[in-house]
Amino acid sequence: MDLLSPRTTASKIREKARSVNGIFPLLLLLVLAFLLMLGLSRGLDDDPPNEKTFEEEHIDYPKTNRLFRYCNSMMLLKRIRGPNDTCRQRHIFIHEKPDTLVSICTNFSTVATCKYPSRMDCHQSHMKLQLTECVLSEGIKFPACKYHTQPTFKSILFFCDDLGPVYFYNTVDDS
């Protein structure tokens, strides 16, 4: 067995420590980059604009007591926005019980065909519902969007599945 002097052993330990220290900053940088990417991807997935349910996006019952700037407040609160965080041009809030809309879905006399481009079977409310229409008046990118608030009573057209409403199609103007 070859015994090394204490000075030689210390020298070899220092050389190994230097080579590890050269790799350590690189490893640390890679770990930090991975954690940053993981955090950013989770942040982006928190609230995808098109993943809200019909109820989360359109139902406000009972109507939230925001008399001043209702649409501006509600669009921010519910994080309603268009693709790529653009301001949505128009949005409808429905101030009716969700059960009312579910009953419309189960009533076959309310079936109507949605117009182009979807051509899907929709349901139309025969009674006028309490709505608030929000129309973009200023802004391009969310959250810097300003809306005009228009309370109204209109029939609506929406698509249903077996559980209830899933897609708001449009309001129906009186003819």
Structural description of this entry:
The protein has 175 residues and is an alpha+beta fold. The protein has two domains: 1-46; 54-172, P-30 Protein (Roll). 35% of the residues lie in helices and 27% in strands. The protein has four helices and six strands; from the N terminus they run αααβαβββββ. It has helices at 6-45, 54-58, 70-77, 98-106, and strands at 90-94, 111-113, 121-124, 129-138, 146-161, 164-172. Strands 1, 2, 3, 4, 5 and 6 form a six-stranded antiparallel β-sheet that branches. A hairpin with a 2-residue loop joins strand 5 (146-161) and strand 6. The N and C termini lie far apart (103 Å).
Task: Tell me the layout of helices and strands.
Layout: H1 6-45, H2 54-58, H3 70-77, E1 90-94, H4 98-106, E2 111-113, E3 121-124, E4 129-138, E5 146-161, E6 164-172
Antiparallel strand pairs: 1-4, 2-3, 3-5, 4-5, 5-6
Short description:
Helix content is 35%, strand content 27%. It is α+β, with helices and mostly antiparallel strands and 175 residues long. The chain has two domains: 1-46; 54-172, Ribonuclease A-like domain (P-30 Protein, Roll).
Using brief descriptors, characterize the structure shown:
P-30 Protein; six-stranded antiparallel sheet; alpha+beta; 27% strand; elongated; 175 residues
Enter the CATH topology name of the largest domain.
P-30 Protein
User: Shape, please?
Assistant: elongated
Number of helix segments? Answer: 4
* Annotated CATH homologous superfamily of the largest domain: Ribonuclease A-like domain
Order of helices and strands: HHHEHEEEEE
Strand content: 25-35%
Number-wise, the strands total 6
For this structure, what is the CATH class of the largest domain?
Alpha Beta
Major sheet: size, sense and barrel closure?
6 strands, antiparallel
CATH architecture of the largest domain: Roll
Structural class based on helices, strands and sheet pairing: alpha+beta
CA-to-CA gap between the ends? 103 Å
Count of folded domains: 2
User: What fraction, in percent, of the residue positions are helical?
Assistant: 25-40%
Rg value: 29 Å
pLDDT under 50 segments (min length 5)? 41-46
What is the average per-residue confidence, as pLDDT, rounded to a whole number?
82
